[in-house]
Please model this.
Amino acid sequence: MIEARGITFGYDRDAPILTDWSARFDAGEVVAVTGPSGRGKSTLLYLLGLMLKPGDGEVLIEGDSVAGLGDARRAHLRASLFGFVFQDAALDPTRTVIDNVVETALYRGEPRAEAQGRARELMAQFGVELRASAKPGQVSGGQAQRIALCRALLNDPRILLADEPTGNLDPASADIVVDAFHAQAHSGATVIVVTHDPALVARCDRRIEL
Amino acid sequence: MTGQLRTARWLAVVREALATSWAQPVASIVTIIMVAGMCATVLLTTGRTVGAEQSVISSIDSAGTRSIIVRAEPASGLDATVLDRLASLDGIEWAGAFGAATDVQNAAFDDATRVPVRTVWAADLTSIGIPATSAIENRSAWASAAALDALGMPDAVGGVTAVSGGEYAIMGRFDVPDYLQFLEPLVMIPQTPETPGPVSVLVVIAERPDLVAPVSRAVQSVLAIDDVTTVTISTSESLATLRGLIEGQLGSFGRNLVIIIFALTAVLVAAILYGLVMLRRKDFGRRRALGASQGLIVGLLLTQVAVLSAIGAIIGCAAAAIGLAATGDPLPGLDFFAAVALLAVAVGAIAAVIPALAAARRDPLTELRVP
Model:
C-alpha cells in the first residue's frame, strides 16, 4: 500500500503542478492515473516512486512516511520495493538484454548469478529468452517493453509503477503487459499506471483523473 | 553490512564499471589516450630532465662530491687518534687515516715494479672490502686491482717486500672507492686503533654534499695540530654547491613542468568526462530511477575512470620508456615511472569527481524524457 498525503509539487514555485493532492493505492489493485498532458501524471508517478520529493506533504509506504529518508535509503527502497516500467522501455542500448534485466540487482546488492537465474525465468515467461545476448537495438518495440517488464518484475516488487507502458505497443503486446500487471497485483502488489490508453484504463480496477 | 558483503558489493561495482567501459569503447579509448598522452608527455619532458639530472648528479657524486682530504706533513704530528675525535662528530659517513707511502715490490723478483704501500686506520674497512680483523697482525696487506697488476700478482696471492725492510703477505684484493682513487695504485696494511701511528692523508666523507663545508670546519678543529701550515685541506665544496644548484634548478623546473602538465591534462580529462556524462545523462537518469544511489553513481564513474586511467598510465609509461630508450636518453628511475603512473590515476579520478557529481545529481524525470 502506498499513499500520497497532501502533496504539493512544482518545478516553478509559483505554479505548482500538484497542490495538496492526496490518494491511497491499496495492495492488490491496478489503478490507472489519467488526465490531459501537463497535469502532472508522470510527476505524480515519480513522486510516488521516491525519485522526487514533494515541496509539501508526504508519501507513505505501508503507513510509514518516507519524507525523512536520505538519498541512499530512498534509492534502496526504489531498488528493492519498486518496479518501474517507462514509456520507451529505457533500456541501456550498450548492454545486452540480460544485462539490462539484471541491472537493478547491483543496486539492491544482490548477487548477479542469482538475479540472472530469475531473469531467465521471467524472460522465458514473456517470450524473450532467445534475445538474452542481443542488444536492445536488435529487438522490436514490443520485445523491448517486455524486457523492461522483466527488469521491473525481477525483484517481485510490492509497488509497480508504469508510465504509458502500452503507448508504443501493438494490441497483442499491450495485452501481455496488462496481464502481467494483474498477475503482479494478484500476488499482493500495488500497480499504478499512468496512461492515455482507453483500452488499458478499461482493464484497470480503478481510475484517478488528474 | 559485513566485510564479506561489502567486498562483494565493491567487486560488483568494479565489474559494472568494467562492463560499462567495455560497452562504451569510444569514450573509454578517448580517456585512455588522454591519460596515456599525459604520462608520455610528462616522462618525455620532465622524465628526460630527471634522467639527465640523475646522470649528471651521479657523475658528480662519483667524482667525490662529499670528500674532505687532509694532507699532513710529518712535522704536523697528526696521528691516527684523530679518528677517535672524528667519531664524536655528526654528519660523517666514513673516515680513514693513511700513513706515509713507502714502496713495496713483489718478493719473488729482485727488480720488480715498485708500488706504494700505506698503513691504514679506519673504523669501517669492511665497506671497502677489507675484513675487520687480519690473520697476521701488521703483516697482512690488501691490494687494489691496479696495484696487483703492477706487482704481477693477478691472483692476489704472494708476498711483498718493502724497500725500507719488512715483508707482508698479500691477503686479497679490494675495490678502491671513488673517493680513494687519488691514492691508486694502492696497497694497504690495516692497523688497529691500539697502535696509532703518524698520518699523512686523512680522508673524510660527509653524509651529504651540503654538509661538506660544516664537516670540513669541524674536521679542521679536531686535528689537534700546533702548526696549521703543515696541513692542507682540500674539499669538494664547490662541486657540492654546483651539485646542489643542478639538483635544485633542474628539480624545480621538473616539478613545475609536472604540475603544469598534470593540471592541463586534468582540465582536459574533466572536460571530456563532463561531455561524456552529458551524452549519457539518460543512462544516469535511468540508473537513478531504478535504484542507484548518488553515492553508487559517483563510485561507478570514479572506478571506471580509475581503471581506464590505470590502463592509460601503463600504456603511456611503456611508450615513453620505449621512446627514451630509442633516442638513447637517460631513463628516470622506476620510482619516477611509478610515481607518474600513480599520479595519473589520481589525476584521472580527481578530474572525474565533478562530472561524477553532476551525473549523480541528474533528475531522473528530466533525463528519461530526453529522446
Summary: The CA atoms of residues 178 and 203 of chain A lie 8 Å apart.
